[in-house]
Specification:
Length: about 450
């Protein structure tokens, strides 16, 4: 991503200098992708820092965690001066960015934590940028970096999301939604493939059709293209040759942790993370796999591709709603408008979609919590989709296909539309064995019962 962003910035008329501690990478970049460009390369950090005009704007694109702290320490030792700006454009944890902003201020330079979404192509052509950190640094940096950002209807896909880690918090939520949607897409593909017996090119046709309607999005379009791509050597669909293990770098786990920390339910994001972990247990899956089981493989699927598409649409809508709930919690901490996240997600980023565009419009003119507003405005649509979502979950289970994203989205929605849940029994049993107490309908205070007996 670093190379693409450097090329993007240079193409907008900016003078760019790059540094990497591995000299071979710098030399190769200058000779190949940056050949003939106004880009200078350095392998000595002090020389790199000295080459920049003050106040300096330095972008970090390194692995999250200790490498970022090490890079910041190295830059400080290499000649950073008061007023310089260092922007961490990697996928850092928001708490780390909270800390780094304070540490930077104590050393005289300004820190930005910038969530950048768009992948390799987005970095080159225009990503979505979610800024957090020192506000004065944001104002100065956005004047330059904003020129390289994605644009939607003349609006730059950049915004400020508060002090410290606000920008990285929004990026973590973005990635959590991405996890959920990817899992939902994979489940739809699995049903088309193993349930309806479609080959990859046929499934590609279905995804392509979906991408022309309410499911229009980068990820659904990407699924269609990936399914249609063939291996040049064998002529087989490349996707069918890829090992069925989904990797992850940590932002999905952080979204799950944020859900627990802020008390914002996000079950579909949680299931997407868990299912990636399950995918890596190929040894266990191999031992438990069997050619035929009662109620398992060999029983024909009963749904149409249209039914599957409706279930996918419902799951995607509910995934965005769960992400909005996380954003509502983060907005209280970092003091940003949730609608701004959906605004900058309309172009450049991985989760850009028709749903994002429509959601921004409704949130911009609405008020209150974003998750509540999304669910209320789409309630009629969700009610219409509910039978097909339930049928998809049921039929997938009947023929032995896991559908954790769809099933968790279904349970999430059914719970939210239930006036009364069985949580009263949970609380009663908690009081029975642990004297945790409970509240009573229509009465003030916390109560406790001896239940006539006590567990050991």
């Amino acid at each position: 991503m670093g190379e693409g962003l450097a090329l993007n910035l240079e193409s907008r008329g900016m003078r760019v200098a790059v540094y990497n501690r591995t000299a071979e990478k710098v030399v190769r970049f200058l000779k190949e992708r940056a050949a003939g460009r106004a880009i200078e390369g350095y392998t000595d950090l002090r020389s790199f820092v000295s080459s920049l005009k003050r106040p300096r704007l330095i972008l970090l694109l390194v692995k999250a965690g200790p490498p970022v702290d090490q890079a910041l320490e190295a830059l400080a030792s290499a000649g950073l001066e008061r007023g310089d700006i260092v922007a961490d454009c990697g996928n850092s944890h928001y708490r780390d960015s909270d800390r780094r902003m304070v540490e930077a201020a104590s050393r005289g330079y300004r820190f930005l934590g910038v969530g950048v979404s768009g992948g390799v192509e987005g970095a080159l052509r225009g990503p979505s940028m979610m800024f957090g950190g020192d506000f004065s640094a944001y104002v100065e940096a956005e004047r330059l970096l904003g020129r390289a950002a994605a644009v939607y209807e003349s609006s730059r896909c950049t915004s400020y999301f508060g002090d410290g880690g606000g920008g990285h918090f929004v990026k973590i939520v973005h990635n959590g939604i991405e996890y959920a949607i990817l899992q939902a897409i994979a489940e739809s593909y699995d049903y088309l493939r193993r349930g309806l017996g479609m080959k990859a090119p046929e499934a590609a046709d279905v995804f392509e059709e979906w991408s022309r309607g309410e499911l229009r999005s980068f990820l659904v379009e990407a699924a269609a293209r990936v399914l249609r791509h063939t291996d040049p050597e064998s002529g087989r669909p490349l996707v069918e040759m890829i090992v069925d293990e989904a990797e992850q770098k940590g932002t999905g786990v952080w979204a799950v942790e944020a859900s627990a920390e802020f008390g914002a339910p996000a079950p579909t994001i949680c299931e997407a993370v868990q299912h990636r972990l399950i995918s890596t247990r190929r040894d266990l899956r191999s031992r438990l796999s069997a050619p035929a089981r009662p109620g398992g493989r060999g029983v024909g699927a009963s749904l149409s591709p249209e039914d599957v598409g409706s279930a996918l649409l419902a799951t995607v809508i509910l995934s965005y709603a769960q992400g909005a709930g996380l954003l509502d919690s983060g907005a209280r901490r970092y003091r940003f408008r949730v609608s701004e996240a959906f605004r900058v997600w309309r172009a450049g980023c991985i989760i850009r979609s028709r749903i994002v565009e429509e959601t921004f419009e409704s949130l911009f003119y609405g008020g209150g919590e974003a998750a509540v507003q999304i669910l209320a405005e789409r309630q009629d649509q969700l009610e219409a989709l509910l039978p097909r979502l339930a049928a998809f979950v049921s039929d997938a289970a009947r023929i032995g296909l896991p559908a954790p994203a769809a099933s968790s989205a279904l349970a999430y929605y059914l719970a939210l539309r239930s006036e009364r849940l069985p949580a009263n029994l949970i609380q009663a049993i908690r009081d029975y064995f642990g004297a945790h107490g409970f509240r009573l309908e229509g009465r003030e205070g916390v109560f406790h019962s001896d239940w006539g007996a006590r567990a050991g």
